[in-house]
Amino acid sequence: MKKSKVISTTALVLGGLMATTGTQTIVHADTVGQATTGTQTTKSAPTSAACAEEVQASQAVTSYATSQDVVASQAASQATSETQSYASQLDTDPAKTANQERTDATNAKTAADAAADQNLTTDKTNAANVQSQATQQAHDNKTNADNQAATNQTTTETNAKTAKDQADANAATTKTNADAQAAKTKADETSQAQSGKLDPKYTTAVTDAQNQLNADQAAVDQANVSATTAYTATPATTTADAQTGQHTIQSEKNLPTVITDPQLSSTVTNDPNADAIGYYGETLKDDDSAVITDTLSDSQQNELADYTLTLINSWRKAQGLDPIQWTQQAQDATIALAKIREKNQIQGHTMVDTASIGEFNNTSASYGLTCAQENLSFLEAYHDKVTMTLLKSQILNTMTGMLYQDAFSNWGHKNNFINMTTIGFAVQKNTDPVTSGNLSYVLIFEGYEVISESNILFTHSVTPTVLTPTSAQTIEALRTSGGATAAQLQAVANDKMAVTNAQQALTDATNAVNQTIASQLTTINNKYTAQLQANTDAYQATLAQNETTYQNALVAAGQTYADALTANTANETAQIAQAQTDYDNAIAKATTAHDAAIAVAQTAFDTAYAAAHDETSAERDARHAELLTAFKVSEDTKLANLKTQQAVDFAAFKAAQDKLVADCLASHQTASGDDGQTPSKPATTTDGTSQTTTTDQGDQLDPQTTTTATTKQHNNIVALNVRKTAAKQPVSVVLPNVKPVSDSRVQPATTTKTTRLPQTAERRHGASASLFGLMLLSLSSLGYGLLRRKVR
């Protein structure tokens, strides 16, 4: 039932007729009362849920008929207005003079001559096209025939090759079977000759050695099962769970080697005032890394930079970005930069300290670099001790925050990591007396660009030395402990050697036995070799015969192909000759017709020129009456065509509505389980009597014939199209415009004129859009807080 409701609602929406003249204007019937083209009845009130669909369809038909009446009325009104305007123009048209008539005669002859010339040109072009097409067809026929001949030849050759290959394959199979039988015979005879000659102790030794290897290998495998692997810490998503579970870093074994998205909620990620999160806890209860008490050594700085590069490039790879380059020059420059900052007690961004900018620039330039980006972070001073693992944990936490919770800094740190091409990293001891009590170390992520020759700091070129991070391999290797002992592994190695020795002893013993029966084996081998040669000779003879048969088939196919090409060429030549004959005949006929048309035009010109005179009032009135009569006939024809098309379209629309009702009734019958056929109920008139709904279409014309005639007589009249169950193009009703009267015989102008039909309460939109909108409207009735404060 739900589906039927939707269909009925759609039918109601489609009930409105769309008509456009120039600009698109929708005309909808605003009444739901009775309106017909011909005769239309009103159905009785529904007696069941299914009958509601009939009422809706009836309302759609009524609305549609009313819309047609509006269009027809407006077209008739416009035709009357245009006729009156045309009559007014004729009233002001003066009588023609003799000179005008002679001019008209001259123009008519010129036009007739041009038409004759154009016809001759067209006929010549058509004849040339026909000849060209016939010639091309002859070429195509030959090409197709040649291609078919080539295809036939290829098919014949392919079949011959297939037959040869199959015969060769059969011969190969025969040889293979014969060789296999010879090999089996040799093996049986060899086995019989060697039977009972080999001491079984050699075989037993091999078996025992293999069993020992299997036992020792099983012990190694069992030992490896007990190996343990330290967990890799994962980032926390809230401050509450940052210090527990797998988020805790107890030693270097727990450090991740990739940056992991902490999957923060969008509220936290995008809120610059959201509490920061300590993604990784730092218990470090198993930490045995080096303790830092003062300025870091260069090797310690390089180790931390190695880990930094490992993390940032893992993130860039996940984003589809190229890795940042880590060079010796960038690393040395950053370490030097950290020492300058420590000496000058700098705690903020490097380039903000104007007193030290010159020293910074000169230091970077000495390595062929210039500073481009800088990210800073800090290590709090509350830690009992600062170790290398603690600093790596701080780097991990800092970079996670900069990449995934950097709204506080407007994502400046993240953008720096995206834009960097070359990087260096160093840790600076904070010597600023104001802040060092809270922040013990500064983490410096420095991005560089290579100085170009156009830069004022350029003094000499420096070839960069690219460094490769190794932290990932080192940390991953630390995670696993336990497994098989060296003694167990050595036992397996010894067992493998014992198996090899036992197998070699077996081979030597077998060779010794074979040596004692050499004469028998020689005879067996000679017999086997002779049999193989006989099999090969038979195989080669069969292949040679197959090749001869194949070559004979190829020769026959080639001859057939050559004969076909000769016949195809003869056919093409005959067709081209016939095309030339037809062309010559067409040119002769067109020339004769052209000359006759020129003569007729000359005669008409001579007659009209001789009869030229000033037009009398009676002649002028008669000419105007004839023109006005022709114009009225044109208008009446257009109105009749419109009415005829409306009748055709109304019948089609009503049929579509009836089908919707029938489909809905059938759906109800199916849903109710009625397998029988229920006859449709006749419509009921307002007085209660049964009556079949009909539509009087008048003298209905064939739609195709009507459209063709209209197009020929009035190019500016467009047939009225109506949307049925599927969307079509909007309807256009275009009425003729009237030109000023200036010629002796003024014809109705073919220039179209924009005519606005009256609008209803509907708003003006494109017809398709309005209809679709109405249909839709009908259907719709169904810790990083602290970390963030540290990051600059």
Explain how this protein is built:
With 792 residues, the protein is α+β, with helices and mostly antiparallel strands. It is 60% helix and 7% strand. The chain has 17 helices and 12 strands. It has a 4-stranded mixed sheet, sandwiched between helices. Strands 1-2 form a two-stranded antiparallel ribbon. A hairpin with a 1-residue loop joins strand 1 and strand 2. The longest helix is centred in the N-terminal third of the chain and has 97 residues. The N terminus and C terminus are likely disordered.
Keywords:
single chain, 792 residues, alpha+beta, 4-stranded mixed beta sheet, two-stranded antiparallel ribbon, 17 helices, extended, disordered N terminus, disordered C terminus
Helix share bin:
55-70%
Q: What's the number of helices?
A: 17
Low-pLDDT segments, ≥5 res: 1-47, 678-791
Helix/strand/pairing category = alpha+beta
Shape descriptor: extended
How would you sum up the major sheet? 4 strands, mixed
